[in-house]
C-alpha cells in the first residue's frame, strides 16, 4: 500500500482534505448556523442571553428527537412520514391513560413509548414483508395514526391538569439546562453510537447504497430496516410525552407537520435523501440551524404571528435550496471529473478524492 | 380479461355493495338534489385525481397539491373580488397552478431530486406563504362567481358534466395519444423510454405542469360552490387523491394504472364518509378509514406482486 502513494502529488492530500471538508454539507450548515447566530445577536436584543438559549433548546427537543431517528431511516434510502401522526396518537393515548384510566404518568409514558414502537414495527412489517415503498406505506399510516387520534378524542377533546412533578420534565432546569435537553443528549448518544460505531450503522449505509448488494453481502436487510423504523416509532412516543410535559395538554393535533421539520433538519444536515451517506451530528446541526432561524426571526419581528409563518416558509425554501445546491454541485463535479482526461495508468488519486482516509 | 381488470372489477363490486347497502338501509341517500350536491362537491378532487394518476403512473408523487389548491383558490378569489370576469379568473388560476407545478417539475426532472421531498418542501412553502398573505382571513366572493353565474341546479349540472367529460377525455388520451403512452413508458422504465426516443425529463416536467394546471381548474370549480374562499380549503386534498389512485390500482412503482380504476376508487372513497354519517357513525373516523384503505390496497398489491415476482412458487401453489 505504501509504495502506491506517489511522491510528486504530496501536496495533494491536504488540498483534498480541505476541499472535501468545504464540500461537506455539515461544514456548510455549521457555517450557516454561525452566520445566523452572529446576525441575530447583532440585530436582535438579548439573543445570546442564557434564558433565550434555554428557550431555543426547550422548543427544539421534540423535532430534534424525530430528526435524530429519521437519520438512520433516510440512510437506508427510506422515509417515514408517519412520525408526526404517531406523536399525536401517542399523546392522545397517554392523555387517556392518565385522565381516564388514572395510570401514573411514568406508566402511561411507558405505554406511549411501547405503542410508538408497535406502530414503527407495523410500518417496518409492511415495508419489508410486502416490499412496498416506505413512502406510500408511511403515507397510509400518516393518515391512519392521525385519524385514530382524532377518532379517539372525537375531534376536539383534550387532556389537561397533569401533576406538577410530570410538568417539571418539560419546564424546569437540571444543571442549568432544560430537563428534556438531557433526553435529547441521551438519544443523540445512542443514535450516534448506532450509526457511527456499530455494524448496524454500516448496514444502514450499505442498504441505502444498494439494498440488493447488501443482501448478497450477508446483511440481514429486513431486520436492519425494522430496527430503524421501530426505533423511530419508539422515539416518536417519547417525543409525545415530552411535548405534553412542555405544553401541559394532550391533544390529537400534537406533532402536526413535525415529520417535515425532521426531514428538513436531516437533509440540511447533509444526509443524502437517496440514502447511503450522512451523519448524525450533521442532523443535530440541521436541527439547531432551523431552531435558531425560527427563534431569531420571532425576536426581530415583534409580531409573533407573522414570524411563525415566515420561519415555516423559510424552512421550506431552505430545504429546496439545500436540495438543489446538493444536486447541482453533484452534477458539476460529475461533469468536471468526466471532462478531465482519463488516466488509465494511475486511477488511485481519483479514488483518494472520493474518500479521504486522512479525514478520520 | 378478468385477470387483467381484476382491480377494476373488485372495486366495482365493492362500490356496488356499498350502494346497495345504502339503498336498502338509507334510501334517502339517493334523493336527487342532495345527491347532485354531493357529486358536485366531489368534482374538484376528481379533477385533481386525473393529474395525480398521470404523476403516479410516471413514477413520481406530488403531495403539494393541497397547498397549490389553496393558493389557486385564493388567487382566483382575490381576482374575482376585484371584478375580473370569470374567464380571466379561470386563466389566472390555471396559470398560478401551472407555475407552481413547473417549479416542482423543474426540480424533479432536471435536478433529479426525489419528488416526495421536493413536493414536501413546496407544500409547506406555499401553505405558509398563503397563511402569511391571508392571515386566516376568509375572502368574500361576488355573486357572479357562485355556480358560474348559472343558478344552482344548472351550475351544479355543468360542473358535474364538465368533470365527467374531462375524465373521459383524459382516459382516452392516456390510452390513445402518443403523449399519454409516453407517460406510461417513462414510468415503466425511464432508460428504456429514453433509448426509444422519448425525453423522460420533458415528460416528467410536463406531467407536473399539467398537474398544477388541473389544480387551477379544480380550485375555480371549488370556489364556484361557496360564498367565501377559505385559505385552508385544500388541506388534506393530496391524501384523498393519492388514496383514490392507490385504491384504484395505480402502481406506486409507476407504469401501471387506469383512469377507470381511479374513478371507481374515487367513488368508493367518496361514498365512505356520507355512508358513515348515514349510518349514524361519527365523521371523525374519516382520516383513519382513509389510511386503512390505503394500507389495505397497498397490502393487496404487495401480496399480488409477490406472487407475480416468483412464477415458480405461484406455479407450485
Description:
The complex is a heterodimer of chains A (360) and B (317). The N terminus and C terminus of chain A are likely disordered. Chain A has 360 residues and is mostly helical. Chain A is 73% helix and 1% strand. Chain A has one domain: ABC transporter involved in vitamin B12 uptake, BtuC (Orthogonal Bundle). A two-stranded antiparallel ribbon of chain A has the order 1-2. Chain A is built from 15 helices and 2 strands. With 317 residues, chain B is an all-alpha fold. Chain B has a single domain, classed as ABC transporter involved in vitamin B12 uptake, BtuC. Chain B contains 13 helices and 2 strands. Chain B has a two-stranded antiparallel ribbon with strand order 1-2. In chain B, α2 crosses α10 and α7 crosses α9. The longest helix of chain B has 26 residues. The two termini of chain B are 22 Å apart. The chains are: A mainly alpha (360), B mainly alpha (317). At the A-B interface, α6, α12 and α14 of A face α5, α10 and α12 of B.
According to CATH, what is the topology of chain A?
ABC transporter involved in vitamin B12 uptake, BtuC
- List the helices and strands of chain A in order: HHHHHHHEEHHHHHHHH
Mind telling me the CATH class of chain A?
Mainly Alpha
The overall number of domains of chain B is: 1
Structural class designation of chain A = mainly alpha
Q: What is the radius of gyration of chain A?
A: 22 Å
Shape of chain A: globular
Instruction: Tell me the fraction of residues in β-strands of chain A, as a range.
Output: under 5%
CATH topology of chain B: ABC transporter involved in vitamin B12 uptake, BtuC
**Order of strands in the sheet with most strands of chain B:** 1-2
Largest sheet of chain B: 2 strands, antiparallel
Largest interface: A-B, 48 and 47 residues
Amino acid at each position: 500500500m505504501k509504495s502506491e502513494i506517489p511522491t510528486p502529488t504530496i501536496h495533494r492530500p491536504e488540498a483534498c482534505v480541505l476541499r472535501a471538508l468545504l464540500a461537506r454539507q455539515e461544514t456548510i450548515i455549521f457555517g450557516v448556523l454561525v452566520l445566523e447566530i452572529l446576525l441575530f445577536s447583532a440585530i436582535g436584543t438579548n439573543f445570546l442571553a442564557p434564558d433565550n438559549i434555554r428557550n431555543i433548546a426547550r422548543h427544539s427537543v421534540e423535532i430534534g428527537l424525530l430528526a435524530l431517528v429519521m437519520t438512520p431511516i433516510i440512510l437506508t434510502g427510506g422515509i417515514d412520514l408517519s412520525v408526526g401522526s404517531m406523536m399525536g396518537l401517542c399523546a392522545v393515548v397517554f392523555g387517556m391513560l392518565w385522565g381516564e384510566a388514572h395510570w401514573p404518568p411514568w406508566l402511561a409514558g411507558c405505554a406511549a413509548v411501547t405503542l410508538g414502537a408497535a406502530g414503527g414495527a407495523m410500518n417496518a412489517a409492511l415495508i419489508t414483508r410486502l416490499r412496498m415503498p416506505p413512502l406510500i406505506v408511511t403515507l397510509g399510516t400518516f393518515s391512519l395514526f392521525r385519524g385514530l387520534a382524532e377518532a379517539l378524542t372525537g375531534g376536539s377533546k383534550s387532556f389537561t391538569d397533569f401533576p406538577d412533578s410530570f410538568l417539571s420534565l418539560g419546564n424546569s432546569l437540571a444543571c442549568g439546562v432544560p430537563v428534556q435537553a438531557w433526553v435529547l443528549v441521551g438519544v443523540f448518544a445512542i443514535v450516534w453510537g448506532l450509526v457511527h460505531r456499530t455494524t448496524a450503522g454500516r448496514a444502514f449505509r450499505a442498504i441505502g447504497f444498494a439494498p440488493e448488494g447488501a443482501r448478497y453481502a450477508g446483511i440481514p436487510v429486513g431486520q436492519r430496516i425494522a430496527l430503524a423504523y421501530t426505533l423511530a416509532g419508539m422515539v416518536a412516543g417519547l417525543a409525545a410525552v415530552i411535548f405534553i410535559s412542555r405544553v401541559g395538554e394532550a391533544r390529537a393535533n400534537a406533532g402536526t407537520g413535525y415529520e417535515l421539520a425532521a426531514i428538513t433538519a436531516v437533509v440540511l444536515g447533509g444526509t443524502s435523501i437517496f440514502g447511503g451517506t450522512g451523519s448524525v451530528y450533521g442532523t443535530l446541526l440541521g436541527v439547531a440551524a432551523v431552531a435558531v432561524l425560527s427563534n431569531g426571526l420571532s425576536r426581530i419581528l415583534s409580531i409573533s404571528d407573522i414570524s411563525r409563518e415566515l420561519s415555516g416558509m423559510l424552512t421550506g425554501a431552505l430545504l429546496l435550496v439545500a436540495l438543489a445546491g446538493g444536486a447541482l454541485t453533484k452534477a458539476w463535479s460529475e461533469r468536471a471529473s468526466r471532462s478531465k482526461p482519463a488516466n488509465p495508468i494511475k486511477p488511485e488519486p481519483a479514488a483518494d478524492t472520493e474518500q479521504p482516509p486522512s479525514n478520520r | 380479461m378478468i385477470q387483467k381488470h381484476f382491480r377494476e372489477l373488485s372495486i366495482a363490486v365493492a362500490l356496488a355493495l356499498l350502494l346497495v347497502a345504502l339503498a336498502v338501509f338509507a334510501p334517502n341517500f339517493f334523493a336527487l338534489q342532495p345527491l347532485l350536491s354531493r357529486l358536485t362537491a366531489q368534482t374538484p378532487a376528481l379533477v385533481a385525481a386525473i393529474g395525480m394518476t398521470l404523476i403516479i403512473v410516471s413514477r413520481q408523487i406530488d403531495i403539494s397539491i393541497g397547498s397549490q389548491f389553496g393558493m389557486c383558490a385564493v388567487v382566483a378569489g382575490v381576482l374575482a373580488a376585484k371584478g375580473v370576469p370569470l374567464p380571466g379568473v379561470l386563466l389566472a388560476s390555471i396559470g398560478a397552478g401551472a407555475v407552481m407545478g413547473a417549479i416542482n417539475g423543474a426540480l424533479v426532472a432536471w435536478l433529479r431530486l426525489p419528488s416526495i421531498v421536493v413536493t414536501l418542501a413546496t407544500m409547506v412553502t406555499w401553505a405558509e406563504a398563503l397563511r402569511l398573505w391571508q392571515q386566516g382571513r376568509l375572502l368574500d366572493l361576488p355573486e357572479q362567481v357562485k355556480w358560474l353565474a348559472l343558478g344552482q341546479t344548472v351550475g351544479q349540472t355543468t360542473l358535474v358534466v364538465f368533470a365527467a367529460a374531462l375524465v373521459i377525455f383524459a382516459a382516452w388520451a392516456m390510452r390513445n395519444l402518443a403523449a399519454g403512452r409516453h407517460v406510461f413508458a417513462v414510468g415503466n422504465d425511464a432508460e428504456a423510454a429514453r433509448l426509444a426516443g422519448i425525453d423522460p425529463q420533458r415528460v416528467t416536467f410536463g406531467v407536473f405542469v399539467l398537474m398544477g394546471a388541473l389544480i387551477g381548474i379544480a380550485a375555480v370549480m371549488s370556489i364556484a360552490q361557496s360564498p367565501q374562499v377559505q385559505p385552508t380549503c385544500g388541506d388534506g386534498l393530496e391524501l384523498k387523491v393519492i388514496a383514490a389512485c392507490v385504491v384504484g390500482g395505480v402502481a406506486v412503482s409507476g407504469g401501471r394504472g387506469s383512469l377507470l380504476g381511479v374513478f371507481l376508487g374515487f367513488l368508493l372513497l367518496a361514498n365512505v364518509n356520507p355512508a358513515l354519517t348515514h349510518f349514524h357513525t361519527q365523521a371523525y373516523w374519516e382520516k383513519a378509514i382513509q389510511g386503512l384503505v390505503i394500507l389495505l390496497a397497498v397490502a393487496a398489491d404487495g401480496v399480488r406482486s409477490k406472487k407475480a415476482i416468483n412464477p415458480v412458487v405461484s406455479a407450485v401453489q
